[in-house]
Amino acid sequence: MTGVASAVPPNECINDIDCNTVSTACGSKVCSWTAAANHTCVDASLGNTDGWCGSDTDCKCKTQGATCQASVGSPHCTFTKIGPDMAQPIPDMAGADFAVSPSADMSVQPPAPDMAHATSSPDLAVSATCDHDTECPNTACGGEVCRWTASSHQCVAAGTDSPGSDGWCNSDSECKCKGEGATCNLTTLHCTATLPKAAGKSGCEMSQVATPTGAMLALGLVAFALFLRRRARP
Fold first, then answer.
1. Which of 192, 153, 152, 140 is CA-nearest to residue 171?
2. Number of structural domains the chain divides into
3. Measuring CA to CA, which residue among 214, 205, 211, 180 is closest to residue 194?
4. Domain check: are 83 and 148 in the same one?
5. How does pLDDT run across 16-60, given as a tens digit for each residue?
6. The domain containing residue 179 runs over which residues?
7. How far is CA 183 from CA 38, 46, 167, 172, 187, in A?
8. CA 206 to CA 225: how far, in whole Å?
9. What is the distance between the alpha carbons of residues 28 and 43, in angstroms, rounded to a whole number?
């Protein structure tokens, strides 16, 4: 039979590792249990049905990843020889395209302008992750609120969304404007207000308040002038 080590007497081996006297290298002779070469060291071949093993340590190609299949009823190593296609790395994996650093157009570039600064617009003014408004910085009424989107829960400037849908809450205590009467709408889970009420009176209101005082002063001056004229008569 071709490949049989005829100089080696029969019953010389029980498993592949017994053929170490010939060579210990992966791909060297293995122990054949066949009618033609019973317990005899023969040349290894590609495939997983030659040789013989009882455990992984009997596989000459163990360091290349071979294991013994005895536990599944096949007392052969998964492979006993490495073919040309396994001897060298695949060409496109060994080339310069993986060995060198990325090309210039793939090197690290500055972030796009709209993402360079998180505070460039209210909806990107992220300061922290959160679950509800009072977990965001600036605890005062008008401070950041917690915005829930499909991909994140993050703090943004109060007023980013329209009143009644701005921020997030689970109870009145999580509304930063609670002191000004804001409550948590448990249907929408938003505080009724996230910005402070307008302070002071408008200019129109101020002018209306000032008008009576100015008129009274003018009438007083006219009355005083009339009084002086009467006193001046002979």
1. 192
2. 2
3. 180
4. no
5. 888 887 788 998 899 988 777 778 888 888 877 888 898 999 999
6. 116-191
7. 90, 77, 12, 5, 12
8. 29
9. 6
pLDDT, tens digit (0-9, with 9 covering 90-100), for 207-217 = 344 445 555 66
**Same structural domain, 81 and 123:** no
Tokens coding 187: 């249907």
Domain annotation covers residue 158 = yes
- In the structure encoding, which two tokens stand for residue 63, read together? 């360091």
Nearest in space to 159 (alpha carbons), one of 143, 172, 138? 143
Q: In 3D, which of 43, 53, 42, 48 has the Cα closest to residue 17?
A: 53
Q: Whose CA is closest to 178, among 198, 158, 192?
A: 192
Tell me if 223 is assigned to some domain. no
- The torsion angle over the Cα atoms of residues 214, 216, 220 and 221, rounded to 10 degrees, is 20
Quickly tell me which residue has 């023969």 as its tokens.
Answer: 42
Q: Is residue 126 part of a domain?
A: yes
Does the pTM surpass 0.90? The reply is no
3-state secondary structure of 190: strand
Nearest one of 195, 156, 155, 190 to 179, comparing CA atoms: 195
Last residue of a domain, one of 153, 173, 191: 191
End position of a domain, from candidates 87, 104, 128: 87
CA distance 220 to 214: 10
* DSSP bridge partners of 146: 155
Residue 100 lies in a domain: no
Got the DSSP string for 79-146?
A: -SS--HHHHS--HHHHSHHHHSPPPGGGS--PPPHHHH-TTSSGGG----B-SSGGGSS--STTS-EE
Whether 29 and 72 map to the same domain: the answer is: yes
